[in-house]
Amino acid sequence: MNETDIRKYAGLMQELGLTGLEITEDNKVVRLERNAPAAVQEVVSVPAAVPAVPAAVQTGELSVKSPMVGVFYAAPAENAAPYVSLGDRVEKGQTLCIVEAMKLMNEITAEEEGVISQICVTNGQVVEFGTELFRIKR
Prior knowledge:
There is one protein chain. The protein is mainly beta. The chain has one helix and twelve strands, in the order αββββββββββββ. It has a five-stranded mixed sheet with strand order 3-9-8-6-11, with no helix packed on it. A hairpin with a 2-residue loop joins β8 and β9 (104-109). 20% of the residues are buried.
């Protein structure tokens, strides 16, 4: 791979807001990485194939679970206010948090409206697939 190709890929990374890119060419692997600005990070919606579908809880609350393994972030940036707090009213489609997986920021949204009755994880915590993130009282 020559310098022109590397510059082309670096420009593409910046244009798309990527922090990493790995290219395999002729059995050679080139990995490009850059630091994303702390206040601005790419937010990617969770694909429709893996929605954060709330499960019914016996108490009449909805349980919002993580659709993937990753790091839970309550706010869009380190010093920003959290997306939601205990007692907040949320609407269907409203962003609740971000789960970072493989350097991609995945928005987790409310599937139904209600009131946040419990926040089950802490900011920066590693979550597994199916980890309960929130409970929403209908």
